[in-house]
Amino acid sequence: MIFINIDKTDPSKHIYQQIYKEFKNSILERKVAENEKLPSKRNLADQLKVSINSVSNAYGQLLAEGYIYTIERKGYFVEKITEFIDQHETGAINFPSDLKEKFQSKEGWLSLSHMTSDISMFPFKKWLMYQNQAIKNHKQELSEISSPQGPYIVRKTISRMIAFTRGVKCEPEQIIIGGGTQPLVRQLMSLLKENAKVAIENPGYSRIHAVLKSMKFEVVPISLDKKGVDIKEIESSSPNILFITPSHQFPTGTIMPISRRIELLNWASHSNKRYIVEDDYDSEFKYGTDNIPSLQSMDRNHQVIYTGTFSKSLLPSFRISYIVLPPDLLRTYKQYYSNWIQGSNLFSLLTLHYFIEGGDYERHVKRMTLHYEMKRKMLIKQLLTTFKDDIHIKDVPAGLHFLAHFKTSQKYDDINERANREKLEIYSIERFTFDSKYKDDENSISLVIGFATIKTEEIREAVYRLYRIIK
Amino acid sequence: MIFINIDKTDPSKHIYQQIYKEFKNSILERKVAENEKLPSKRNLADQLKVSINSVSNAYGQLLAEGYIYTIERKGYFVEKITEFIDQHETGAINFPSDLKEKFQSKEGWLSLSHMTSDISMFPFKKWLMYQNQAIKNHKQELSEISSPQGPYIVRKTISRMIAFTRGVKCEPEQIIIGGGTQPLVRQLMSLLKENAKVAIENPGYSRIHAVLKSMKFEVVPISLDKKGVDIKEIESSSPNILFITPSHQFPTGTIMPISRRIELLNWASHSNKRYIVEDDYDSEFKYGTDNIPSLQSMDRNHQVIYTGTFSKSLLPSFRISYIVLPPDLLRTYKQYYSNWIQGSNLFSLLTLHYFIEGGDYERHVKRMTLHYEMKRKMLIKQLLTTFKDDIHIKDVPAGLHFLAHFKTSQKYDDINERANREKLEIYSIERFTFDSKYKDDENSISLVIGFATIKTEEIREAVYRLYRIIK
Questions:
Q1: Tell me, what's the pLDDT at B91?
Q2: Kind and range of the H or E element at A29?
Q3: A255-274 per-position pLDDT tens digit
Q4: Nearest chain A Cα to B206, which residue?
Q5: Which of B81, B380, B409, B462 is the most buried (most CB within 10 A)?
Q6: What is the ipTM of this complex?
Q7: B327 preceded by cis ω (within 30°)?
Q8: Is A256 helix (H, G, I), strand (E, B) or coil?
Q9: Tens digits of per-residue pLDDT, A379-408?
Q10: Is there a contact between A152 and B257 if contact means CB atoms under 8 Å apart?
Q11: In the sheet where A241-244 sits, what is the strand order?
Q12: Which residues in chain A are closer than 8 Å to B101, comparing Cβ atoms?
């Protein structure tokens, strides 16, 4: 027999839920035997002075969750339920304090981060207008799961655009859209898993390094000379996959000259198992010259895999990147990933389509190029004026960051601690070096300095803070 | 000596680009020797009768791309460039025709797909209002890369919501947001890589099966009895990771009763290396009962990993899913993925935050529950009226699909071909079975029937088409 205790005074406690909970707990705590018959709905309703509906709802819920069973014309019975093995006496483990996230207020901070883009000039109004157009024209698609590579019309628009701006030769079929370069590289590399030896630039992009390491690839860091990755080191370590950033080496800024490009393509052509992954992460921004044609545009053997992103040219928060696969890899990809759902938000992808088609992408990049060029010049001038002979800037007029070397006896740990005190977000080259081969001089440090976020009126103050940090 | 040919009649061809191209091609085609001196800017400008600026821009671009070098006060010289090894005579491989995507018009089609959600009642106006609020309040964040697990405030909102609706016990720290369940499962499983043996439901969710297979896991399909996964098969095949859908088994619809839940939790508790992944993909929709508490809510040993998605309750095109990790796995995750960028569009995530906080998520789910319940009833009634004794529907009032068995001598291949002719999108259970253990009767077929997309006024016609397909 189950004793049911109902509180009718609190209207927030539904009667049926109270009945449900009382039975549920009694059954779980084994206060009632299996196969015991429950009171009939009418009897219980009378006994508790509640509506038969409340009892009915409670029994329905108990039935749905499997606490009771019913036999037609006989009534409701308690289900046979295995006893819980409870290993922890308290039944609860407190959440470990080392996993609690700590928050640091960014109030009063200035940033020379290379990871951001300037949102102050983002044409939200235009973007939202195109978004409305996307919603209006693609209702059906938005309720469905799109193609595993992303909607065809968006891939077509991207393929046209990169043919025009980067000389990339590809069909929309070859493009795979994803929520960032990292997941795309991960998908790509899962196709190349067998016995792959991967080479990356050193210093280079640490997030790609992290993906490759997490996949347990053998990763060889390759030193840079003034033209880019050292071709002799590549030949001697003999990788089959090479990750490079020829348009604007990250983080040193080197634009790879044509001679090294041909050397690398020649290196690849010696075996059809070799691939070069060209990460064209910020090629949109060149100051003083036209865009530099992509490496992919010169590849005649389908051995260059091209990756691009809208994180720099639009905003990183959109999470829209893409990869262009050569036909043979595409064929493998389609076998592996036919059941994969592409990871980018479809609203943004379709909005992007109209944004590009309407000419606003090109206009935005042009406008941002002028804006970034101006900020870049101001920042470099302020740095030179302030640090005088103690700074050397690798001045490549491209991208959203540059590398600067400072004469100082400070070590990186001190620099980071002081930067924290001065409230200046900076990143040193340490973060992007992968073995002991890369070395700064004894008395100098190198910083990757981004100028996308900093406001023109903050440049002077940011450089003063930097001076106090480094001196 | 380089012969330069300029076309001044076509204003679309910039002079500087023509000069640049002529030099570039001459150098690549080795018509000019390395270290040969280029004409001075002034001389070339005079000779071609163009402005010195045009020559200057052309030389600048050639310099940036590394075709030429300059010596101060001496002029410009041709760079030494390695010769191209060209393996393919034509220099171009035609795009293989088998990789060309084919398009089938969906004009006139009706859909009983389980993969969609109903967009006709999506509150776009509200969503866009909250989006404006997100843009206004989070400008700075939108220009940056967010936390590797997604913005804290969004995780906090989700953790509160699933505590309330699903009884899930977790801190915002334990939530990882991603662009779909697939990439999240992939990240999770990369942490459990060593010697993991994975068990899945059979029939079950084929997209998860695909992820596990692509990662080369040993995957054991487990048969279902009327309570869900067969506990004896689990014990005998002894996996350490078990993927299940207890709230509404996909695709059979079974709601796992409390007794099986406790059996599974007991099974897990025998070793701290065992985990159960609870995929709660459509638990928002229950017709006639309250929500069924999640398995995670009963787990006292931190062995249940909970995953949820907004693909069913909102729209699949948002690509917003999340996973809740127990503390020990979270610690490992943070080590592996500190350098990872979360893959969901930040605009949608922050909009979702306000959408939930403003109460509109709850309102939308309530409204859709009524709407789906009505469509579900109509569809079932029409099916019963039309197929009479030749149909058996597994009528579990939950989710956005149900399983139906039809008496017929037709085979699946014929059914699919006829469905194509009748223009009806349907999915048979074949798609979701993973070995030969699952068998239909000789004279019956099973279809997974979704009712999210179909309009009420189309139901009758869809069922008639189905009748013509199956009879």
A1: 47
A2: none
A3: 999 999 999 999 999 998 99
A4: A339
A5: B462
A6: 0.93
A7: no
A8: coil
A9: 999 999 999 999 999 999 999 999 999 999
A10: no
A11: A175-178, A321-324, A304-309, A275-279, A241-244, A197-202, A218-225, A228-229
A12: 147, 152, 172-173
